[in-house]
Each structure stands twice: as C-alpha cells, then as structure tokens.
Amino acid sequence: MSEARPLLIYVHIPFCSSKCHFCDWVTEVPTAELLLRPADSPRRAYIAALCREIKERGADLAARGYRPAIMYWGGGTASILAEHEIAQIGTALHEVFDLSAGLDEATIECSPESLTLAKLAAFRNVGFRRWSSGVQSFDDRRLRRLGRSHDAEQARRAVHLAAEAGFDDRSVDLICGLPGEDLDEVTDSVRAALELPITHVALYPYRPAHGTVLRRQVTRGTTAMLRSEQKAAYARAAALLVDAGFPEYAMSHFGHRRCHSDLAYFQLRMDWAGFGSGATSLIEGEYLAHRRGFLAAYNRDPLRFDECYPAASPAIAARLLYQSLTTFEGASRELWRERTGVALDEVLALGPCRHLLGFLERMAEVRSDEEGVRLRRDQIADAFIDLQFAGLAAAGGDEPRAAALLG
C-alpha cells in the first residue's frame, strides 16, 4: 500500500453576528447572508450543501490516498454554529475521513460572544483540541469602533471557558496599529492577553482594506504616519510577547506551541482541501476556490469551483509566495516543487512574483540559497507593513494596491 498523503482540512463557515468595520472578508458578503440564523432556510441549505461537498469530495480525496493531518474550522465565525449544525458537519467529516487515529492539530476558531460550554463540548466531540479566538483588543471603546459584538470581559471569559472545556492549547488574535491607537493602548491589550491562560498569540498589523468602514478613517496624507505608527506598535507588542515567554516564529505568530495549520498553509507543507463558500483548496498542484459572497450559487452546486488554476500560474503563485515569505523559513525549493510541480526559480521568474520580490528587496535583505528564498527575519514585519500600504492611492487614499503586486 502506498504511503498516506497528509492533508489539511479547512471548513469555512460564512456567517457572523456582526459586520466588523475592519474585516475585508465581509465586504463581498451581503449583510443579509452574513447574519443568517440557524432557522433561516438559506443557512439550512448551506449546511446541507457543505455536508454534501465534504462527503463527495472527501470520498474522492480519501480514494486518492489523502489522510487528514490537520483540521481547521474558520470563517466568518465558526463558533456561530448551533450544536446540531456542529454535529451535522462533524458527522459528515467522520463518514469520509478516518479521524480515529487523531490529528496532528485540530483548531476551532471562535468569537467570544458566541461561545457556550455546550458548544465547546460539541467541538471537542468532533475532535478539536486547539482553540483560537479573534479578540482583536481588550479596550471596550476600541471594540465598539471595530464593530465587534463582544466586550473585553466576554473575551476574558471565553478564554477561561475554553480552558474549562479541556482545550489545552489556546490562542487569541490581536490587531495593532489601528487608526488613533497609541502605544499605551497597544501595551494594555497585550498585557491583558498575557494575564489570561493562553499558549499562543496572533498579532496582526491593521490592514486598511478597501471597502471597510474603518478604511474611511485613513485619509489623504495620513498613510505615512499610520505606517510609522504600525511599525512602532508591532515592535512594542512583539517585544512584550517575547519578554513574556512567547517567542516569535513567523510574522504575527508568537508562542512555543506553533500553529501548524498556518505554517502548513503558508509554507506549502501539504495539500489542503477547503470546504464551503469562500474556501480554497490546493490539490495535486491545482488551486481551486469557491468565491465568497455567492452563497446561493454554492448551495445550488457545492461541487462547482469558481476558480481553477495551476498553483504555479501567475494568477496564484504570487499570493502563495507572499504567504511563504512572512515565515522565517521563507519559500522552500523542495516544498514548492512538491506542491506545484514547478521549480521555485521558474515561479520567481513570473511577472507578479518578480514585482513582489522586487518590492520586498527594496525594503529588506532577501536571501536565496539551495534551501529557498527568505527575508531577514528581523526585517519581515516592517517590509510587509510597507507592502500593504504600497501604492495607496493619493486621492483620498482610496485603496492599498498591494494586490497589484500580486498580479
């Protein structure tokens, strides 16, 4: 029998309890779809379509020799699911994949306002052992400005609930460098997180994404200031985390317990299968995607993909390269050939990849050797903060044009 092929399973839940002011994912999702409740017929249809995709595509993947090594449910808000919905999706996964031997990592992504012990127990029954929550801030005024549905006390309670439910690996997400946020506020949020029983922190510099409410606060002439403040905020927060015993192992990732799902995805360590509206897959060198914001189309035919490209094509390669270069190891020649079937040097010669690498070379030292290509680790955060502001339109500062560098 041939050796099993490791697979990352991602399940996407495209529903939330609010439309956050900073989130670019929700800009393409109609509010009426985003806020659907369990009893609403389009949401019931979505759960049925999702389970159908898991069963039919999952059976095909299992027949090709794939064995799940990592599982991640995200969104949207995965914890917005009702207990019976969690059970439905979990049952579909267990029907087609052998999860009995355990997974290297299984992460459930949660939002504090949607958590109960009963839900956490249901997630544990599916097989989850790692818990992650998008807290974003521990400042109540900031949370209101971000459009979050929870407050700081709910965020604290959520971490304790996760511990009580038996999750021994607990991560929180924070955003730094927000408009109008000073270093004291950044420091206070990080320290508030460190007072909790957490094992990992994901620290993301704010990205002024086009179409978001918060983006309107970034006006003409303020982007250089915001960029400088973001760099200072990230440096302050990172130093606090490292000093507290949370080593940085990739940009935005801090902790002795590494997030294997993120590293597998960013570094192309294995193929991944994304199930659900808005999910992407990388299977045998082919990039497949269900477009977000097209719930009705997905419900009609969850086996149809809206995008299908070779992973080493100009349309996709720069996106994957961007992710790889945020890690300290960078883009591995061996892993890129395994995942895409194309040598890394050929990928780097593509126009969008040349443009991306050329920009980064102006911001940081880029090192290339027989192992791969990487940025000097102490320059990664500043380089990617610069990148996300690259080409910000001068007239009103309309949009970060980093996407132009990605093809």
Biggest sheet: strands, sense, closure?
A: 9 strands, mixed
- Put simply, the count of helices is 16
Distance between the termini: 41 Å
> Helix- and strand-based class?
alpha/beta
pLDDT averaged over residues: 92
> Which percent band covers the strand fraction?
15-25%
**Global shape:** globular
Strand tally: 15
Record the strand order, biggest sheet: 7-8-6-5-4-3-2-1-9
Report on this model:
The protein is built from 16 helices and 15 strands. The protein has helices at 31-34, 41-63, 83-96, 117-126, 140-146, 152-164, 183-194, 223-243, 260-266, 295-300, 314-325, 333-340, 344-348, 351-363, 380-388, 402-405; strands at residues 5-13, 66-75, 105-110, 130-136, 169-176, 200-205, 248-250, 253-254, 271-275, 280-283, 286-289, 307-310, 331-332, 366-368, 372-375. The radius of gyration is 20 Å and the shape is globular. The protein has 407 residues and is of the alpha/beta class. Helix 2 (41-63) packs parallel to helix 3 (83-96) and helix 11 (314-325) packs parallel to helix 14 (351-363). The termini are far apart. The longest helix has 23 residues, at 41-63. Strands 7-8-6-5-4-3-2-1-9 form a nine-stranded mixed sheet, with helices on both faces. A three-stranded antiparallel sheet has the order 10-11-12, with no helix packed on it. A three-stranded antiparallel sheet has the order 13-15-14.
Q: What would you say about this model in short?
A:
With 407 residues, the protein is α/β, with parallel strands linked by helices. It is built from 16 helices and 15 strands. The longest helix is centred in the N-terminal third of the chain and has 23 residues.
